[in-house]
């Protein structure tokens, strides 16, 4: 069973205000950014995986890293795959944008990215969907930590 539960019609927000999805969430669900179709054809510098298909939600984040002019390692690309609900898809889509915009997050900052920051950019999520928003940032943190371990 999917741990995010059943999903009401997100087009019209049926089920009351507690199930309302912002237009930004709907846009990222119906048109996810940076979704990776075939990981075998993508040459990532690192990846992180959280969740379990047995539990219902699983997220894999793939990153490419570059070093800027100040010798700071940053995320150049952030791709992802998921087995999850609409909230998990929208949250990870937004996270992938946040990770790469404005020259990319430094690895230090990427590890500190909070689900509340992602939710704010999405215009919020229903309270009972908060746990869905943590998959992407946890997988991103794991990808960064795996990259750092590989450099030692």
Q: What's this entry about, in short?
A:
Helices cover 35% and strands 19% of the residues.
List its salient traits.
Sufe protein. Chain: A, alpha+beta, three-stranded antiparallel β-sheet, 152 residues
Question: How much is the average pLDDT?
Answer: 85
Main sheet: strands, sense, barrel: 3 strands, antiparallel
Strand content: 15-25%
How many DSSP H or I helices?
Answer: 5
Would you report the number of β strands? 3
Q: Which fold name fills CATH's third level, the topology? A: Sufe protein. Chain: A
Structural class label? alpha+beta
| Spatial strand sequence of the major β-sheet | 1-2-3
Query: How much is the radius of gyration in Å?
Result: 15 Å
- Low-pLDDT runs of 5+ residues are 1-18
Global geometry: globular
Q: How many structural domains in the coordinates?
A: 1
The CATH architecture classification is Alpha-Beta Complex
* Topology pattern, helix = H, strand = E: HEEEHHHH
CATH class: Alpha Beta
Helix content: 25-40%
Distance between the termini: 39 Å
Protein architecture, described:
By secondary structure, the chain is of the alpha+beta class. The chain has one domain: Sufe protein. Chain: A (Alpha-Beta Complex). Helices cover 35% and strands 19% of the residues. The chain is built from five helices and three strands. A three-stranded antiparallel sheet has the order 1-2-3. Helix 2 packs across helix 4. The longest helix is centred in the last third of the chain and has 17 residues. The protein is globular, with a radius of gyration of 15 Å. The N terminus is likely disordered.
